[in-house]
Amino acid sequence: MLITQELARYLAELSSDTGKQLGILVNRSGTITHVIVGDAHSVFIPELDAYPLGKKALRGLRFIHTHLNNTLLSKEDITDLSLLRFDMIAALTIRDRLPDKIHTAHLMPQGAAGKYEVSSSDFYRYELDFSEFIENLEAEMERRRMINRNDNRERAMLISADIKARYEMEESLEELKELAASADVVVLDTVIQRLKDINPRHLMGEGKLKEIVTNGMDKGATLLIFDQNLSPSQIRSIAETTELKVIDRSQLILDIFARRAHSRDGKVQVELAQLKYMLPRLMGKGTAMSRLMGGIGGRGPGETKLEADRRRIRDKISHLEKELETLSEARKQRKQRRAAAALPIVSIVGYTNAGKSTLLNTLTKSGTAVEDKMFATLDTASRRLRFPREREVIITDTVGFIRDLPKDLMAAFKSTLEELADADLLVHLIDISNPRFEQHIESVETILKDLKLGDRPRILVFNKTDRMPEGTVSNILMRYDAVAVSAISPESLRPLLGAIESHIWEAKNGPL
After folding, report:
1. DSSP string, 392-431
2. CA distance 474 to 51
């Protein structure tokens, strides 16, 4: 049963005598888990941490409350139903201290005509096999969501809300999709919301935000990823609207870096960046230290340990900065040994997933890990490359660049990127098959200027030319005065090797 007649009469009597709305939360075994005393017009539903939303479509709780006036379910009731995913919500109206009408609402499976269904009935004529109804409803919801119960990956809604032109947001959202795939996140849907003004609290209007959250829950999302970098107060406000985890572009990139860093240098730099990003965001629920562990943007234990967490983070940051100094000394020693050997240094730079590691492997016949994902490799690799006449260079593969690289991450990797200052030549590798390659070139050039490397000698090299028509490649090469390669084909690398040889030795010693 949804509720017994005895319990309904008891609620009606208590509500009439106190002049307040009363509510109960009941689990599927029929146990009352919460009794809530409101005021004359509403009740406030507490935190439901003991009944978290998991892979199932519904929470497993029904919410039944009294209405002192003969009113239908309110807009707030329907909002609670949608955002909190109750099995059902019911309002009992009262006449002469007894139940009169019962108004109920439940969610509908995704793709149904309406998102919820509302009904009203005389309380004493209301009949429903509640257990069977909910079991069938949830089974239909699960069937329409088509979620693999054995797939433990995060399921995300990608959201772009900005005042920029729509085409710019679409391009940026496509890149966010690639980042999500690199983080092993299943993308359920994308949302683009062009704004007149940025809402300082929720980024967008609260109504639109709740609509997105409800849609995400209908589809089985566990995560909201915003393409814009959110302020600490925005993350907190959005997190208060939903139990879904909320992260922004920077935190997604940090998570990818944390997964892919293998060297001690890389791990220390990523952890330092994470902590610096997290410190100003330790403002309460959902942002404590444990967010650095577990799933993407994992929720923390709450704000009771807030100050302790802040102190621990500051201590950890200080410790990591000292460790970075030690690692920096080791890099200086390696640099001195290279200088003593008088070997020229060539650094491969470029946007993430341009094929830098593949090029290094093909040039030097080495086995650096490669994968068709953004930031597949983070740790700097250096190899020797032999040229004719017993000449050699050291060729290095650096971490990939990306537009709007998080400032904390840029600062943490500064010591690694500073090694580019030792390079005699930069090979700027570009994925010609990417429709956004012009923006990628601009982003890389901007980062090089930020690193004060804008005047460093460089060769523009377009990679993945095997994926493009020959005529298109020729036109692009002429426009940029560049070299074309296919990093998986050793035969295509001769022009690049000739260009490197020309820049390093011919520039110094005259024609070969």
Report:
1. EEEEEEPPPB-TT--HHHHHHTHHHHGGGGG-SEEEEEEE
2. 61
To the nearest 10°, report the CA torsion of 127, 130, 134, 140.
-40
- Residue 432 to residue 472: CA distance in whole angstroms: 10
Which of left, alpha, beta for 70 (phi over 0: left; psi -120 to 50: alpha)?
A: beta
Q: What is the pLDDT of residues 182-199, one digit of tens each?
A: 889 999 999 999 999 999
C-alpha to C-alpha distance for 240 and 381, rounded to whole angstroms:
43
Q: What average pLDDT does range 305-331 have in this prediction?
A: 80
3 state DSSP class of 111: coil
| Angstrom distance (rounded) from CA 8 to CA 19 | 16
For residue 139 the two structure tokens come to 């089974």
Domains annotated on the chain, with CATH: 5-145 (3.40.140), 155-260 (3.40.50.11060), 261-338 (no CATH), 343-509 (3.40.50.300)
Instruction: Give the span between the Cα atoms of 193 and 432, in whole angstroms.
Output: 30
Q: What counts of helices (H) and strands (E) characterise the chain? A: 16, 16
Residue type, 495: P
Run of H or E residues at 99: strand 98-107
pLDDT greater at residue 508 or residue 398: 398
Name the residue type at position 94.
Answer: I
Task: Return all residues near 421 (Cβ < 8 A) that are at least 6 apart.
Answer: 451, 452, 453, 456
- Residue among 507, 491, 510 at smallest CA distance from 499: 507
Could you tell me what percent of the chain has a pLDDT over 90?
A: 40
Q: Give CA 460 to chain center in angstroms.
A: 32
Q: What's the whole-model pTM score?
A: 0.80
Identify the helix (H) or strand (E) that includes residue 345: strand 345-350
Greater model confidence, 302 or 68 = 68
From residue 447, how far is each of 179, 376, 410, 450, 497 by CA, in Å?
A: 19, 20, 9, 5, 25
Q: For residues 306 and 282, is the Cβ–Cβ distance under 8 A?
A: yes
Q: Give which of 451, 417, 409 is closest to 257, Cα–Cα.
A: 409
The pLDDT of residue 336 is above 70: no
Q: What does the alpha-carbon distance between residue 375 and residue 434 come to, in Å, rounded to a whole number?
A: 16
Please say whether the beta carbons of 408 and 277 come within 8 A. Answer: yes
Return the structure tokens found at 503.
């820049």
Tokens of 138: 């949830």
Residues 403, 377, 265, 342, CA torsion sign: negative
